[in-house]
Amino acid sequence: MRIDIVTIFPEFFRVLDVSLLGRARTAGLLDVRAHDLRDHAHDRHRTVDDTPYGGGAGMVMKPEPWGEALDGILDEAEGAGETVPTLIVPSPAGEPFTQAIAAELAQLDHLVFACGRYEGIDQRVVDHYEERMPVRLLSLGDYVLNGGEVAAMAMIEAVGRLVPGVVGNPESLVEESHEDGLLEYPSYTKPQVWRGLEVPDVLRSGNHGAVAAWRHEQRIERTRRVRPDLLGDDDA
Ligand SMILES: NC(=S)c1ccno1
User: Residue 29 contacts by C-beta under 8 Å, 6 or more apart in sequence?
Assistant: First the structure.
């Protein structure tokens, strides 16, 4: 999977050079490229924002630099005969980003993240590129960040880890929270007793069926307690 990120803070994504996603990049499973939006602003001050039409506080990101940056990525993909990438715009005005959407995006060949700042990106950028590629406004949660970079990082990690081969043991992706609509079961490791707290006996029983049943029940109980909204009416 190729992932392009357009941002005024490309250095923010250097962290993707380490850990799991760093190894995936080294292995060629993920090709992540951060682009500086200011490279596509050609005035002396490399200006990427301006005052909003209609007034109001803050600044809006100008469409021209975005057009040049996104055209460059699109033209390269089209020139190489690759599939048209999907544009992801992290935004509090987007649809909720979920594990199901992460799994859906992990099936794609090429994602482009547009990280807005200030009061957001001129709407015409989304309107224009909707004619050329799939565009998804996705929200990490019902809160506002200073820009799209933190959200893009979270989404890239959630998607990247689902790309085949990135996680060494695919089994570890099964029964994770939200993978199948339930929260994950509690996990334990040695020592058997820690500060007077014991590992549940069933987990040391060697009875795999009993362990599986206990874990499933724990998932339902935890989901019912913490996220009843995830359960159907008859399970809540
Ligand atoms: N909630 C999200 S994704 C966001 C992006 C920018 N600000 O908030």
Answer: 1, 163, 164, 165, 166
